[in-house]
């Protein structure tokens, strides 16, 4: 007949529970503070909330079992206890790093090792066909773009994008994906562009690249995307400063532009899109700093 003894403290189960609790706090920290948007695409946030809930349930279940009733039975010293080992410390590393180190969105430092994986429109789909100009705002004659000379996508296989109202916010990814389909929607038109500053080495003081990263899933697949900005005081803004730039899109010849990763997406001609700024406003980093790259089907 088995005799009941006092409950036994299970050190291994306790350590398991603490590790699970650490992961739960780790996830909740990023979700509650918004730091998660510096790491993953917004559509994944709901999945991380679910994951945090699952970890919370597992934590509660594990910690509720740290005291186990012990019976005397004929197992000759055999123990059912889970013993913690040094290898468990490996599981604590991401928790400690995530809780201690601050989280930042990707910045210009990433460009020192960035690969030239910026998506580019297919060259064979480009011609020099003329397009019908949209209503143009007044601009200096040397900044006006002759729409009959800019590259334009051939044929009717590309659907016209939505024409945003002049003066509204224009995401950089929309500019990149649509400028060949409807160049008349963008050139000679004034929009607002948002991104952070990048000064390529050797650039003149009145130019900068306004940059953002596109991601499909997380920062591991980030692609830098930018547009040249001309502004008299461009040099006073440091790398990684976020700006909203209001300006008119024109064309400029830029030396070695195809070697500058964020603006290498436009390789159709020697002249590259450039925003001639009318107003520049420093802003805080947006809650969602990345653009969403379409996921291939």
From TrEMBL:
Residues covered by the DUF1980 domain: 16-111, 175-290
Compositional bias ranges of the Polar residues kind: 128-139
Transmembrane domains' residue ranges: 12-40, 46-67, 88-111
Keyword Repeat annotated: no
Pfam family, one: DUF1980_C
Highest taxon of source: Bacteria
Region (Disordered): 120-145
Keyword set, alphabetical order: Membrane, Transmembrane, Transmembrane helix
Alphabetical list of PANTHER family matching this protein: UPF0703 PROTEIN YCGQ (PTHR40047:SF1)
Protein name according to UniProt: TIGR03943 family protein
Classification of source organism: Bacteria, Bacillati, Bacillota, Bacilli, Bacillales
């Amino acid at each position: 007949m088995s005799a009941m003894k006092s409950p036994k403290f299970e050190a291994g189960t306790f350590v398991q529970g603490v590790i699970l609790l650490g992961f739960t706090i780790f996830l909740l920290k990023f979700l509650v503070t918004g730091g998660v948007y510096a790491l993953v695409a917004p559509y994944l946030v709901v999945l991380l909330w679910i994951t945090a809930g699952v970890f919370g349930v597992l934590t509660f279940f594990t910690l509720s079992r740290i005291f186990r009733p012990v019976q005397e039975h004929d197992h000759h010293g055999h123990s059912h206890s889970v013993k913690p080992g040094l290898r468990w410390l490996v599981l604590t590393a991401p928790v400690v790093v995530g809780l201690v180190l601050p989280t930042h969105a990707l910045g210009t430092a990433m460009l020192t090792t960035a690969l030239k994986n910026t998506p580019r429109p297919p060259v064979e789909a480009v011609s020099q066909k003329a397009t019908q100009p949209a209503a143009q705002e007044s601009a200096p004659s040397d900044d006006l773009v002759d729409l009959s000379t800019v590259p334009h996508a051939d044929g009717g296989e590309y659907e016209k994008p939505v024409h945003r109202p002049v003066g509204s916010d224009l995401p950089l990814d929309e500019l990149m994906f649509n400028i060949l389909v409807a160049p008349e929607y963008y050139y000679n038109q004034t929009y607002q562009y948002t991104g952070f500053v990048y000064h390529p080495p050797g650039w003149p003081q009145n130019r900068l690249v306004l940059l953002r990263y596109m991601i499909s899933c997380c920062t591991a697949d980030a692609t830098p995307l930018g547009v040249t900005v001309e502004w008299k005081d461009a040099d006073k803004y440091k790398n990684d400063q976020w700006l909203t730039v209001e300006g008119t899109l024109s064309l400029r010849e830029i030396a070695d532009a195809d070697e500058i990763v964020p603006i290498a997406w436009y390789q159709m001609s020697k002249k590259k899109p450039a925003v001639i700024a009318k107003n520049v406003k420093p802003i805080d980093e947006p809650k969602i700093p990345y653009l969403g790259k379409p996921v291939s089907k």
